[in-house]
Specification:
Layout (H helix, E strand, L loop, with lengths): L2 H10 L5 H14 L2 H14 L6 H6 L12 H7 L1
Helix pairs in contact: 2-3
Length: 79
């Protein structure tokens, strides 16, 4: 395996911080229908303000729906 490919694979296993999740949510919004677009954008904006990192909640076995702007649907999409 080439070194560059190996590095890319190991980076994929890293945990995403809230800023990275916000970026991914914003990208999802670009592809979504109008109602989902609003939900993704709202969640992306609020992700920067969350008191806790999403990966900490998941590690504690909690739902991401505890974070402002995240409902059950987005909780499943982020996981």
């Amino acid at each position: 395996m080439k070194p560059a490919r190996k590095a890319a694979i190991s980076k994929q296993t890293d945990l995403l911080d809230n800023a990275a999740i916000a970026e991914l949510l914003a990208r999802e919004a670009e592809q979504a229908s109008e109602q989902l677009r609003q939900a993704f954008r709202r969640a992306a904006r609020r992700a920067f303000l969350w008191d806790h990192e999403a990966y900490d909640l998941l590690a504690a076995g909690k739902s991401l729906a505890e974070l402002e702007g995240i409902g059950p649907f987005l909780d499943r999409r982020i996981r």
